[in-house]
Amino acid sequence: MLYQRHGLRIDRLGPIIIHDDVYIGEGAFVLGGTTIGEGSIVGAGSVLRQDIPAGSVVMGNPAKVVARVEDLIRFWEAESMAFPWAELIARREGAYDAAMEPELRELRQKHFFGTGLKSQ
User: What global pTM score does this model have?
Assistant: First the structure.
């Protein structure tokens, strides 16, 4: 199309480099010539056209840095500790504990949906 309309003979290809521990949300587009720095998070549906610094949270079209991963983690930790089940989370071994999950599920359902729902 560019050749027909403008007489251009160009090639805009480049490598896509994704460093370690990067999460790319569903439906995100990463265009050629883009590098995503280590430990970054790309929001779902984002369009990346430029390099992303390590440890960044990016989203949008075009994708822009909206936060640092460290800041997001601190926010999520504070948010988690405000829940009524924070004591259970603090005692949990790792990210998931099958023995605690029924009690956690019941507390979450009660907190978010009231007492009308029963655990399955």
Answer: 0.73
